[in-house]
Specification:
The protein is built from 7 helices and 29 strands. With 457 residues, the protein is α/β, with parallel strands linked by helices. The longest helix has 26 residues.
């Protein structure tokens, strides 16, 4: 009884340790840089509900900066447009990085916002393009975000959608958030291609919208990858998974798929602001493009990954220690497997080419679910070819009366030992010193499994 209590206590300790380690993993965050792009064009002086749009947007942004000020691994910056030149005339380059990225700059951003005056036009595309240089270059992994607060659409000749797409493709920023204040409904579609558009219908909703955006920016979302067996159960595992940023093609995460201590696929915590191309490194690979993870909700992505095993064996492996087998699927080489090793493959039909001498080709090899397909390599023999002098020498095997070339014997050696599969062979030789084909020498010999013979020329 005492031993049972001790054992149970040990198991509980292990579970608590796993849970603590998991919680530690959850709290690890990449550095996040948030660039606020603030609309200070003259239209922000317009009345909206009980106040002026400029004042409402400013107050709520200041409130959000207050809440971000003490977040670890977060840096902020402020770019403003429409605040330097009065309209008219139209100044389509009226934008400035008022507060660059740095630590502990929340007070400076608040102070800058308080003294802004709405004056000019709305050069959204130009402001976005200039934002490309606002994010510092960093060797560490960073998440660069843009939050654009505006009440109007592009007023110059720029294309905000094209600029945003280019910034995302180049990996400079993730998909931007656009918060529209009192925006005419006719203009909503013009922002949907720029990023995630959020409309604020009422003044009282502004704070909730900002909080929603920030929660998406700071929180990673849980997900699991199910590798399904023949019964559609997520029991397949021990496979590497690679997550690429769909927009940039760059590597984002790489994990070894694992089942946790209760046999369920382990939970991952990933950035929900990225769409992913996922490769499961089974043989052959499984792949899915443009996978979106819903923020704040546990997501499950499933792949049909039914696998079986292939094992190539030999009676005397010491004769074939370095033997490899080329595995092909639909004429494409997908793996080179060593002898006496077991390797998993997706179920299906494959063709094999054993790199013996001569090569052995086997078509229509079936890999079945949860089974091991065995391929036996015929027992070879050892053949030593002895030449009287240096010169070119070729080895052939006779099959159905036809000579098929096997390999060339090194012309610069007098004695060479080969491991050959059973069969009837011919060796053809001419001395290097002789320049008449008439002096070609030929020898026929037979290889019996497990034999060792000497062939003299």
């Amino acid at each position: 009884m005492k031993k049972l209590i001790t054992y149970c206590f040990f198991i509980l300790l292990c579970l608590f340790a796993v849970q603590a380690f998991s919680q530690k993993i959850k709290t690890v965050k990449d550095k996040t840089r948030i660039l606020f792009i603030f609309d200070a064009s003259q239209s922000m002086n317009g009345k909206w509900e009980n106040s002026i749009k400029m004042n409402i947007a400013r107050d709520f942004l200041i409130e959000m900066i207050d809440s971000l000020e003490f977040e670890s691994n977060v840096e902020m910056a402020l770019r403003v447009y429409g605040h330097q030149s009065s309209f008219p005339p139209q100044d389509c380059e009226d934008t400035k990085l008022e507060v660059p990225f740095s630590e502990d700059n929340a007070g400076e951003i608040r102070q800058t916002l308080r003294y802004l005056k709405a004056r000019g036009t709305t050069p959204i595309a130009y402001a976005l393009s200039q934002a490309a240089t606002d994010f510092p270059k960093s060797k560490e992994e960073t998440r660069n975000l843009v939050i654009l607060i505006t009440d109007g659409v592009e007023a110059c000749d720029g294309d905000p959608c094209a600029v945003s797409d280019e910034l995302q493709k180049n990996g400079i920023i993730l998909q931007p958030f656009i918060i529209g204040i009192g925006l005419d409904r006719r203009f909503h579609e013009s922002f949907e291609c720029v990023g995630e558009f959020l409309e604020v219908d009422k003044e009282e909703d502004f704070g909730g919208t900002l909080n929603y955006v920030i929660s998406q920016v700071l929180d990673k979302t849980s997900m699991q990858v199910n590798l399904l067996d023949e019964n559609d159960k997520p029991t397949e595992s021990d496979v590497t998974m690679t997550f690429y940023n769909h927009k940039t093609g760059k590597l984002r995460y790489q994990y070894m798929h694992t089942l946790n201590y209760i046999g369920i696929p382990d939970t991952l915590f990933i950035d929900p602001l990225i769409s992913y191309d996922i490769t499961i490194h089974t043989i052959p690979n499984l792949h899915a493009d443009s996978i979106r993870i819903e923020p704040g909700k546990h997501s499950v992505v499933s792949f049909k990954a039914v696998q079986g095993r292939l094992k190539i064996i030999s009676q005397r492996s010491n004769l074939l220690d370095n033997l490899s087998c080329v595995v092909k699927k639909n004429e494409n080489t997908i793996n080179v497997q060593s002898i006496n090793n077991s390797q998993k493959y997706l179920i299906g039909t494959y063709s094999l080419e054993l790199l013996t001498l001569p090569r052995i080709k086997i078509d229509k090899v079936k890999i079945k679910a949860s089974e091991t397909t065995l391929i036996k390599v015929p027992l070879p023999g050892l053949v030593t070819i002895s030449k009287p002098t240096y010169g070119p020498c070729d080895l052939f095997i006779k099959i159905d009366g036809q000579m098929e070339w096997v390999c060339a014997i090194d012309s610069n050696v007098l004695r060479q030992t080969l491991t050959l599969q059973p069969g009837n062979y011919h060796v053809v030789f001419r001395s290097k010193a002789v320049h008449l084909s008439h002096y070609t020498k030929k020898r026929a010999f037979k290889v019996i499994p497990g034999s060792s013979i000497l062939v003299r020329l």
